[in-house]
């Protein structure tokens, strides 16, 4: 198959400008454009729909309020009263991932969450932030997070490295989950789209029907992964408050 | 300004919606593939970290291959620990 027809071509980064800052390449690419669109959609949607501030909300205002309540509820369920001040962070993260996935569902639109570097950067922000939070709350006692009470003392040399590895694996599992889901879903869509053209007579309608179903599933996954990202962030924030 | 008529109407609609026998949609069980995916990323992530630490230890302490072997095993155990924690969290819900 020619490279231009590859199902993976959709993940290619296309620079729109050649900008360099020092030795870093900071070109504006299709990925950047996608992120700008995402942020613009979020900002416009939330400000415009909530702007009327009507007591009887319109359908669109209801959607905005639903999203707000969804994250507020999530935070109060997992973190409790301490969680309120992290609402802006978790909400921004959730909306960025959710709308980023949704913008990616538009045909011909680049999906930036299908790049591991993007999801890993998001996960690293969460990970570093939560670690700093843990040190701010508990000081040096934060290290007892890796110490499991009620275990014979000779087991600790074994258990502490395991706990540390388990802790360090958090940002990787968080980022890989989102990235792999989006990558797999979009590749699958393209592969089946290839079948539509390749199959003889009218049998191409079968994979076409499958794509329609798969698109629905992809939208579900797009939401689910944003939700998973948000809930895991909440759980990590909770861990930074309550060791064990 | 909001007119009272509109609110009254909405109130009636809410009342009728609440009184009509409304059964909340059953919580859809997570698909097997999604669940397997969740579990596998946990194991892979822990292994990646374990192998990474092992390779770094080998590079700077010159203990090639032992650092890799030991930290690979630690990584594998940490992976299972992660899976155990995920399972416990799911069971709690």
What can you tell me about this protein's structure?
The complex is a heterodimer of chains A (244) and B (93). Chain A has one domain. In chain A, strands 1-2 form a two-stranded antiparallel ribbon. Chain A has 244 residues and is an all-alpha fold. In chain A, helix 2 (59-78) crosses helix 3 (87-105). In chain A, a hairpin with a 2-residue loop joins strand 1 and strand 2. Chain A has six helices and two strands; from the N terminus they run ββαααααα. The mean pLDDT of chain A is 88. Chain B is an all-alpha fold and 93 residues long. Chain B has helices at 4-19, 32-61, 66-92. In chain B, helix 2 runs antiparallel to helix 3. The interface between A and B is medium-sized, with 19 and 25 residues.
Q: Trace the largest sheet of chain A across and list its strands.
A: 1-2
Strand fraction of chain A equals under 5%
Give me the secondary-structure category of chain B: mainly alpha
The greatest inter-chain interface is formed by: A-B, 19 and 25 residues
The helix content of chain A is: 55-70%
Shape descriptor of chain B reads: rod-shaped
Structural class of chain A: mainly alpha
The quaternary state of the protein chains shown equals heterodimer
Order of helices and strands of chain A: EEHHHHHH
Q: Identify low-pLDDT runs of chain A.
A: none
Average pLDDT for all residues of chain B: 82
Q: Enumerate how many helices of chain A there are, as a single number.
A: 6
Number of strands of chain B: 0
Number of helices of chain B: 3
Number of strands of chain A: 2
How many structural domains in the coordinates of chain A?
1
Instruction: Give me the Rg of chain A, rounded.
Output: 22 Å
């Amino acid at each position: 198959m020619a490279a231009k027809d590859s199902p993976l071509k959709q993940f290619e980064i296309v620079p729109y400008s050649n900008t360099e800052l020092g030795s870093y390449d900071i070109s504006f690419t299709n990925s950047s454009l996608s992120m700008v669109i995402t942020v613009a959609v979020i900002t416009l949607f939330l400000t415009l729909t909530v702007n009327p501030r009507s007591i009887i909300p319109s359908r669109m205002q209801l959607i905005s309020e639903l999203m707000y309540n969804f994250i507020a509820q999530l935070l109060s369920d997992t973190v409790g009263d301490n969680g309120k001040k992290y609402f802006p962070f978790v909400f921004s993260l959730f909306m960025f991932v959710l709308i980023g996935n949704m913008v990616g569902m538009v045909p011909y639109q680049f999906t930036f969450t299908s790049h591991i570097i993007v999801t890993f950067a998001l996960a690293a922000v969460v990970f570093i932030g939560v670690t700093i939070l843990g040190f701010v709350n508990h000081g040096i006692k934060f290290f007892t997070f890796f110490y499991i009470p009620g275990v014979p003392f000779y087991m600790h040399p074994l258990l502490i490295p395991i706990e540390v590895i388990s802790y360090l694996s958090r940002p990787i599992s968080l980022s890989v989950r989102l990235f792999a889901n989006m990558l797999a879903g979009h590749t699958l869509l393209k592969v089946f789209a290839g079948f539509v053209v390749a199959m003889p007579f009218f049998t191409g309608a079968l994979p076409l029907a499958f794509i329609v179903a798969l698109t629905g599933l992809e939208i579900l996954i797009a939401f689910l992964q944003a939700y998973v990202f948000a809930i895991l962030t909440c759980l990590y924030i909770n861990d930074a408050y309550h060791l064990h | 300004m909001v007119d009272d008529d509109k609110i009254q109407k909405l109130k009636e609609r809410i009342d009728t919606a609440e009184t009509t026998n409304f059964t909340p949609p059953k919580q859809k069980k997570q698909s097997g593939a999604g669940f397997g995916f969740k579990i596998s990323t946990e194991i892979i992530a822990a292994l990646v970290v374990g192998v990474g630490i092992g390779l770094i230890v080998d590079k700077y302490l010159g203990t090639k291959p032992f650092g890799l072997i030991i930290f690979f095993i630690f990584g594998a155990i940490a992976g299972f620990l992660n899976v155990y924690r995920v399972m416990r969290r799911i069971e709690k819900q």
